[in-house]
């Protein structure tokens, strides 16, 4: 099977999964959640996007436990809904949602005198040779770091951070996550110069941002296909893609459009000339 056949096969399988309905997207690495330091309960809803992984506490929780916020450390916003009761024109009581917020600080990096309550879960894996070959074969690649908590590509620094393999219950998900960030990095101005990476001030959830996420995850799925590990990652990839398609009004034609850019990115990483 040629590389282009693999690309088409993976794209078609993702479309099939989207049509079937897919499982909710998950972060496949451990030590990824933002949690309340005192209760160890994970934050939910939009707060999962407002907070990086870590343990957070309110000013009162920190003070009560004998901690101290480091000088100059800014608080992070956590939002929640509070229900207010109000009497309507008919004399009936209605509950009205009211958005509130409070601030928290990450106790491992922003606070002194407090200790982590979070246990670290790790897994033992052997590297997958073909997938390692994809990473090693990326010529003109960005710098890599492997710190727990966050998978991200920094365009200004031209650097990728991926949680280490030991944080993933399934080794194949490590490579899919790494491939996702590698595809993002192909959009750098020194490589393929995609607007989703090069444009300044691209807002989270915007059309440009959402399309770049489609390219990155489709490209990662294609690289997983080349590495022979797509069976282990396809459902999570499809559900992640579905989450961004909802932002783009479920236009499945965008899969085909993003697929062309994803193929170009995958070819760049694999060091072969882009095939029309």
How would you describe the overall organization of this protein?
The protein is α/β, with parallel strands linked by helices. The protein contains 9 helices and 9 strands. It has helices spanning 3-20, 47-50, 59-64, 129-136, 171-186, 195-198, 207-227, 234-247, 253-270, and strands at 34-36, 54-57, 68-69, 76-87, 93-106, 111-112, 143-145, 152-154, 159-161. The strands form 3 sheets. Strands 1-2-5-4 form a 4-stranded mixed sheet. A hairpin with a 5-residue loop joins strand 4 (76-87) and strand 5. The radius of gyration is 21 Å and the shape is globular. The chain starts with a helix and ends in a 6-residue tail after the last helix. 33% of the residues are buried.
Key traits:
276 residues, alpha/beta, four-stranded mixed beta sheet, three-stranded mixed beta sheet, 9 helices
Give a short account of the largest sheet. 4 strands, mixed
Q: Give the terminus-to-terminus CA distance.
A: 17 Å
Overall shape: globular
Mind telling me the C-alpha Rg?
21 Å
Low-confidence stretches: none
Helix content bin: 25-40%
Strand content: 15-25%
H/E element string?
Answer: HEHEHEEEEHEEEHHHHH
